[in-house]
Amino acid sequence: MTILSRVFSSGLLPSITKPTRVTNISATLIDNLYINFNVADRAISGILNTDISDHLPLFMLINSDNPVGTRRNLSFTSRKLDNNKLCAFKNKLVEADWEWPEWTETWPKILPPW
User: Domain containing 2: what range?
Assistant: First the structure.
């Protein structure tokens, strides 16, 4: 299953359709904002054209049904983070295999030369 298939099957849509990383020799869409199908008609997203990074910054505006200044009950889910969990996470990062897979060596042959 491709990444895009997983996104669609989760009820999400990518909101960015243009390249977000542009160099002299390539242009790739590698940054995105994903939204639920049910807010897609109320959202505006885009790419800011600036040179503060090698990735172009993204933005999204979602028209809310709630007027400014009104309150409604919101619930948030969070995780407790402590030193043990942080150390375990760091150890997982150290243990990870950070080598590129062999099949990536064929990328220059299959990607268009932009």
Answer: 1-64
What digits encode the pLDDT tens for the residues 72-101?
A: 677 778 888 899 999 998 999 888 877 766
Select from 53, 11, 9, 10 the least CA-distant residue to 31.
53
The tally of domains found in the chain comes to 1
44 part of a folded domain: yes
Distances (CA, A) of 14 to 10, 58, 59, 72: 12, 12, 13, 28
Q: How far apart are CA 93 and CA 91, in angstroms?
A: 5
Quote the pTM value.
Answer: 0.51
